[in-house]
Amino acid sequence: MANTKSAKAKIREIKNKTDFNKSVKNRYRTFIKKTELNIVSGKKDDAKVALRKAESEIMSAASKKIIHKKSASRKISRLSNRIKSIK
């Protein structure tokens, strides 16, 4: 347990950052799920629109260093490849 005033302040700061990071992570995961639902149902046009929104959210999270830049690119790439494979 923190004893000093600065350590207690740091705990509060970490909690705020954690809450913010969780909210951003939940947001981009929601957009990914929407894209995947369109892929599974075979709606190629809707999936492309959803991917564009998801891509924006994922890269936003990457720019805030919540996820790694290459990890974000990999997620986007895999989603776009799945959309391309829809007939």
Topology readout:
Elements: H1 5-41, H2 44-63, H3 69-84
Average residue pLDDT: 96
What is the number of strand segments? 0
User: Helical element count?
Assistant: 3
| Major sheet | none
Overall geometric form: elongated
Terminal-residue CA separation: 58 Å
Query: Which structural class best describes the helix and strand composition?
Result: mainly alpha
Q: What is the helix fraction of residues, given as a range?
A: over 70%
Radius of gyration from the CA trace? 17 Å
Low-confidence stretches: none
Question: How large is the share of residues in beta strands?
Answer: under 5%
> SSE order in H/E notation?
HHH
Task: Describe this protein with a few key phrases.
87 residues; mainly alpha; 3 helices
Q: Can you describe this structure in just a few lines?
A:
The protein has 87 residues and is mostly helical.
Description:
It contains 3 helices and no strands. It has 87 residues and is mostly helical. The chain has a domain at 29-87. Helix 1 (5-41) runs antiparallel to helix 2 (44-63) and helix 2 runs antiparallel to helix 3. The radius of gyration is 17 Å and the shape is elongated. The model has no long low-confidence stretch (mean pLDDT 96).
